[in-house]
Amino acid sequence: MSSSQTHRTIDAIWRMESAKLIARLTRMVRDVALAEDLAQDALLIALERWPETGIPDNPGGWLMTTAKRRAIDFMRRSKLRDQKYGEIARTAPLYTEDDVDHALDGEISDDLLRLIFMTCHPVLSQDARVALTLRLLCGLTTDEIARSFLVAESTVAQRIVRAKRTLSAEKVPFEVPTGEELNQRIAAVLEVIYLMFNEGYSATSGEHWIRPLLCQEALRLGRILAEIVPTEPEVHGLVALMEIQASRLKTRVNAKGEPILLMDQNRAKWDQLLIRRGITALERSRKLGRPLGPYSLQAAISACHAQARSAAKTDWIRIAALYEALARLTPSPIVELNRAVAISMAFGPAFGLQIVDELNKEPSLKGYHLLPSVRADLLAKLGRYDEARSEFERAASMTRNTRERELLLQRAADCESGTYQ
């Protein structure tokens, strides 16, 4: 394996393992900023050694062992050595290298959930929670986060630094809270898990369109949370949404990793067990007797797709109505863009284009690549191929995901050749 291939592999391993590393290290040192630094140290050591020694059979275990050794070395040098050693002795038994696999499989999910509750503490603003989540749990760079939220990279970096300092200064506990404190943080925790799943379902950047392991981790955490707070409808709503969306993961890309859009997917290959579990979770949300919240409404939309035997039989009128309800509950330009797609499918592309053209005036969508992508699709369906090609090319220039860029450029080429479908 060449040096460049090794570095790409290490980058992929880091994206899969970094959240677990940081969660376990936070349990040890009780400081999320220090935990991230220690995890980064382990990554740097891997970048130095693995090109020469080869990637180990269990790279996650190697990184964990290396990071824990760094943590122990740090504490030996710390002025608070005795106090920290006492904390470790009471709360985090040291594992040998042979025990790492068992530790990863046995306790990591709980540690990740504790980390999420920690980063969702009310001492942090919503913007800080979102930035910290995408950084620690999804492995995004500050540049990627900044592009996703259309803000300056320096702004995101400052939010993350301040958030970690605040958590340390306030001595926010690494735990799942109980009682009223638990209830106060549920909405923020749901948002974090939702962000994790979405980053796995449609990656912000990189060479892969989907990151299935991130989806699986988010779904596992959602299921755990549903056991902790079974009377909260939106917990079941989010689980329902993730179950149904996850049922399509194997059909979202072909054997070459190229994206397959929803209308072109082989529905016979959708995971029926996940669909049934999702619909059951949605029913649990409804039976709790409260109006459907945003996650439950999105799950209901996903259920419409899941229950349609073919793309042609999709109940787009119901989906448009559900998006209308979602827009009233949580108005946002992105919800409105999705509603425009549903309107176009239910009543024709001209109606959807009217909504999209209005959204072109929305400042927050200026750098959002899906706006010109949706507009291009509607223009192409109206036979305005030159305009559509230009919009697809504009969308391609805005996305950071390699696979998505290739898809958009191919659709632009199809418009030029007259083969767009």
From TrEMBL:
<dbReference type="Pfam" id="PF08281">
    <property type="entry name" value="Sigma70_r4_2"/>
</dbReference>
<feature type="domain" description="DUF6596">
    <location>
        <begin position="185"/>
        <end position="285"/>
    </location>
</feature>
<dbReference type="InterPro" id="IPR036388">
    <property type="entry name" value="WH-like_DNA-bd_sf"/>
</dbReference>
<dbReference type="Pfam" id="PF04542">
    <property type="entry name" value="Sigma70_r2"/>
</dbReference>
<dbReference type="InterPro" id="IPR013324">
    <property type="entry name" value="RNA_pol_sigma_r3/r4-like"/>
</dbReference>
<protein>
    <submittedName>
        <fullName>RNA polymerase sigma factor</fullName>
    </submittedName>
</protein>
<dbReference type="InterPro" id="IPR013249">
    <property type="entry name" value="RNA_pol_sigma70_r4_t2"/>
</dbReference>
<dbReference type="InterPro" id="IPR013325">
    <property type="entry name" value="RNA_pol_sigma_r2"/>
</dbReference>
<dbReference type="Pfam" id="PF20239">
    <property type="entry name" value="DUF6596"/>
</dbReference>
<dbReference type="InterPro" id="IPR014284">
    <property type="entry name" value="RNA_pol_sigma-70_dom"/>
</dbReference>
<feature type="domain" description="RNA polymerase sigma factor 70 region 4 type 2">
    <location>
        <begin position="115"/>
        <end position="167"/>
    </location>
</feature>
<dbReference type="InterPro" id="IPR007627">
    <property type="entry name" value="RNA_pol_sigma70_r2"/>
</dbReference>
<feature type="domain" description="RNA polymerase sigma-70 region 2">
    <location>
        <begin position="20"/>
        <end position="79"/>
    </location>
</feature>
<dbReference type="InterPro" id="IPR046531">
    <property type="entry name" value="DUF6596"/>
</dbReference>
